[in-house]
Amino acid sequence: MYKDKTSLLFIFTAFITGLCSAFFYPLSSLFIVEELDASPMMLSLYMTLAVSSSVIVSQFIAKRSDTHWNRKTILMISLASYLILVASFTVIRDYWLAITMAVVFGSVSGASFGQLFALGREYGDRHVTNSTSFLATMRAGLAIAWVFGPPAAFMLKAQFGFSAAFAVSAITVSVAILIIAKFIPDNVVTKEEKTAAITEHKPLGRIVILYCFIIVCAFSANNLYITSMPLYLSQELQVDVSWLGLMFGVAAACEIPVMLGAGKMAEKMGTTRVMTLGVISGAMFFLVMLSSTSFTSMLIAQILNGFFIGVCATLGMVALQDMMKDRLGTASTLFSNMLNISVLVSSVLVGVVGELYNYYSALYLCFIGAIIAAVLLIVFEVLEKKQKVKIEGQCEMVG
Fold this sequence. Notes:
- Its main location: membrane.
- InterPro entries: MFS (IPR011701), MFS_dom (IPR020846), MFS_trans_sf (IPR036259).
- Belongs to the major facilitator superfamily. Set transporter family.
- It is found in: Cell membrane.
- It is a single chain.
- By secondary structure, this protein is mainly α.
- It has a single domain, classed as Up-down Bundle (Growth Hormone, Chain: A).
- The chain has helices at 5-35, 40-65, 71-89, 95-109, 112-127, 131-160, 162-183, 191-198, 206-237, 242-269, 271-291, 295-300, 302-323, 328-356, 362-398.
- The protein is globular, with a radius of gyration of 20 Å.
- The N and C termini lie far apart (42 Å).
- The relative contact order is 0.15.
């Protein structure tokens, strides 16, 4: 599909960085609880501090990336920080030291997602025929990594312990840093273009703020599921934790065709309607998880989960970039920060629910989050249509 070698390298870089995360994050909550003997509230504290520091630092970095800081340099520094984080987790066995490393180095590594996809959008707009499709393919690269990563990570954990999975993540991120340093272009957008864009910055509109809230609701539901399921399966159902690796892998495999076809679906039905279908699919998925403890049912239900995440992860980012075309760096970072905030929300909820009730109860909150997102998307579509009619009316008056 892409003859340009640089385009292929962007896609491969997305895959490699996704693989780094896939070997680390699915195991992180289990590591904090099992290896560091943390209570549910201690787990919540760890994740809250890690994510909040990441949001603050990445927002600070984003403002500089839209002005005079080089995106490629930021990307390499953030991945180098991630390397230090995962490498340290191979030897850390103290809860407070783990928090310190997560806050100091994990906060900087949080800038990597936004900068990679901002750089990809800038490159796609200038050198690729369809930048939306290109971004979707990059995002699919991340999903492919999650097909192989979690099952392999859980197998490594079962055979050799947490340190083996974290070591593989460290090796993978080292490869990503080398690829970016050697092959990814330095200056897709010139300093003059960045400087010109600063004067065009405007406050976030009401419709953008509503959309960001929708993203937080949808991804909070997904992140709460990702965080609570390892603990639900291992501590409450007391089944083989490798179930989770297979479930994550199947969900990611289902995401890939959805991501690749999301652009075409949006052209036919409209972006908002496709996203509404996606979150409804998510609500149905959480209903299945609430009502069944059968491995077969849980595995088949990942088709619904794959459609949910495939649509939201692809169209969610592209739609926000389209709403803020004059601020691509800010839009990409804003989407990344909404994902981080959703992790923060889910981190607080998993600790509170786990402490007061049980990890199964977290699935009720996942279902409620998906329903709220679906309702707000319908409201968003109505407001979007009114805004378009208003703009068209103003254009006619001017004409």
